[in-house]
Design goal:
mainly alpha, elongated, about 90 residues
Length: about 90
């Protein structure tokens, strides 16, 4: 699972003029990467990857890359334990 975490202005109107500053705040880049990481992890978890299922649970519990949801966290932990016990 590889995902690229680049700034959102990657293909924006870049100008070499010193009047325009195409820089993006690091916190915005990190926040976008975290959201993307959650989406990628959820996709893998949904497809049955037990390691990703176990990882999605605490992401929901803590609100890491997604709105906090303890109920969804419990659901994913239960799903992961069922998958593991059937292996």
């Amino acid at each position: 699972m590889e995902s690229s975490c680049r700034g959102t202005n990657e293909s924006s109107n870049y100008s070499s003029s010193s009047n325009e500053n195409p820089r993006v705040q690091l916190s915005d880049v990190v926040a976008e990467c975290v959201k993307r990481w959650f989406k990628d992890t959820l996709k893998e978890a949904t497809s049955g990857d037990i390691n990703m299922q176990v990882l999605v649970a605490p992401m929901y519990y803590s609100g890491y890359g997604v709105a906090r949801g303890t109920q969804k966290g419990r659901l994913w932990m239960t799903r992961a334990s069922r998958t593991q016990s059937s292996v």
